[in-house]
Structures are given as C-alpha cells and as structure tokens.
Amino acid sequence: MDARQLRYFLAVVDQGGINRAAETLLIAQPSLSQSISALERELGVPLFHRVGRRLVLSDAGETLVGPARVVLRDLEDAKASVDALKGLRAGRVDLITMPSPGIEPLTTILTRFSRTYPSVTVNAEAAFTPEEVLHAVRTGVCEVGILGSPAAVRAPELDVVALESQPLILISGPGAETPERPEIRRSELSGFRLIVSQRGSLMRTLVDEVLASGVAATIVAEVAHRTSILPMVLSGFGQAVMPSSWAPSARQAGATVHRIVPESYLHVAAVCRQSHLTPPARTLMDEARQYAARTPSAWEVPATERTRDGY
C-alpha cells in the first residue's frame, strides 16, 4: 500500500465513482480501476461493491476512509514542516463550518491565524447541521469544525472549544416600522412578514414558537441558503430572525437590528480530533481558544470600546 493508492481510493470515495475520480486526478479511467483493484488484492478484501454502474463502499472501505485521510494529511504535514524550515510556512488546513458561525467568529479567528501562517491555504467546506460538522471531523474529512447549536456542544471523543453564545436578532430593512429601543419582544412580531431558515434550525424554532403562541406573523419564505436572506430583507420583502453574527453586516448594509426577548442563543463551538492535527490546524484551534477567552462578547461591547483585534 502506498500514498498514491490511498489518494486514488479517496478520490473515488469523494467523487462517487471511477469516471469522475479519473477526471479529477487527470489520469485514465483504466489506470485508476487497476490501482483500486491492486489495493483490494493487497488488502485481501473488496473496498467497493459494484451495484450496476455505481460503486458503494464495503464495510472494509468504510473502515479505511478515516485512516487513509489521516495518513495523507500526515504526509502533507511532513512536507509542510520541511517547507517551514525553508521559510515558506505553507500547507493547507481543511475546516467545515455552518453559515452563521462562518461569518463570526470564524472571520476573526482566521484573520489572526493568517498572521502566523500567511501562506497556508484554508479550505472551508459548508455544512448546515451540527451533525454534519461533527461527522466530517470524526471521519477525518476536515480537521477543524465550526458549528452552532441550540445547546452546548457535547462530543466526548473530540476536542471541543466553546466560543460564544450568540443571541437571536431581528433584521429589518430600511423604513420598516420597528421599536426605537434595541430590543423587540416576541409578541411585537405580530403582523411581520418573516423570512425563515429550514426546519430544525434555532432561528426557525423561535419563529415556530412565536406562531404557536398566537402571534399573527406570516412566514413569507423558507430559505436554505442563508446568504440569500439579507438581500431579501434589504429589498423590503420581509424581516428575518438570525444569530447576532449577522448584525455588523446587516447594519453596514443599512438594515436595523433588534435583539429578540426573551432571548434564544446559538451556542458556537470549534471542534477537532484529539490527535493527528497538522501544525496549522493546532494553531487555528489555539486562536479559537484565545477568541473564547475574550470578554465580554462583541454584541455587548460598543464598537468604540473594542480592541483592534476584535477581542
């Protein structure tokens, strides 16, 4: 077994088949098929089941995925370490993030991280549920995960750093009739046209609770891709319940922001495996710990009182 075989194996897994993997690897399809067959012969077990034209991972294949990713990442780490001695400080760190934490605190953490590793490429995958993030980190698809959850994150087999708790806010477009004070009560959402995220999210749960309490608000759109929500709000189509990480962008774009009371909080955390981290990933987690240690939260501190680094 060699690194090339493992790389080919993971390409087939990630691309969902031989043909697409061969195109990604820029090699001939027969060569890739022969390499996979040779790996299966060497291991003495099939890694895939052939179902029609599709390849489905066998139990042995499922078992190999995680260790294969660790081996290839360790090889990349070794090369990056040698490059660092030459002053390059290069490499790559793979992370996965949910949309709202991907705005903040991830932006601040990555900005500080880049000062130590200016030449490291950050590959940020997208996820929409905490379970997706945890699975990607557990299986080695990504080294670091940033997630938000209605409750504090619990994952005993992972290293978990609680970053902050973001209150939910109401974002309204220019000219919307909203209270002059910074808070808005849930009962005051009566008559509002609300743009919501998909079921299962904390933001959607708050809206569902408001409707169940008898408040006569209206859901006018259900949007999976949250980057589409702010433009809709700014156009006057409706108002949206979002985590406070969206507040700076919303205000800068001309929207108004109100904290919703009683409060609901999105608990944001960074997670990683407890071993086999590359130096850039370890540094990224160190920056996450420094972010977590800051006090108080950016939402509670006036902009004029914040430090230059946002801590």
Brief descriptors of the model:
alpha/beta, 10 helices, elongated, disordered C terminus, 311 residues
Residues in β-strands, percent: 15-25%
User: Given the helix and strand composition, which structural class is it?
Assistant: alpha/beta
Total number of strands: 12
Spans of at least 5 consecutive residues whose pLDDT stays below 50 are 298-311
Radius of gyration: 23 Å
Short description:
Helices cover 39% and strands 25% of the residues.
How would you portray this structure in words?
The protein is α/β, with parallel strands linked by helices and 311 residues long. 39% of the residues lie in helices and 25% in strands. It has ten helices and twelve strands. Strands 3, 4, 5, 6, 7, 8, 9, 10, 11 and 12 form a ten-stranded mixed sheet that branches. It has a two-stranded antiparallel ribbon with strand order 1-2. The longest helix has 27 residues, at 59-85. It is elongated and about 70 Å long. The N and C termini lie far apart (47 Å).
How would the blueprint of this fold be written?
Blueprint (H helix, E strand, L loop, with lengths): L2 H13 L2 H8 L3 H15 L4 E4 L2 E4 L1 H27 L4 E8 L8 H11 L2 E8 L3 H9 L5 E6 L8 E15 L10 E3 L7 E4 L5 H11 L5 E5 L6 H6 L4 E5 L3 H6 L3 E6 L3 E9 L5 H15 L18
Parallel strand pairs: 3-4, 3-5, 7-11, 8-9, 8-10
Antiparallel strand pairs: 1-2, 5-12, 6-10, 6-11, 6-12
Helix pairs in contact: 1-2, 1-3, 1-4, 5-10
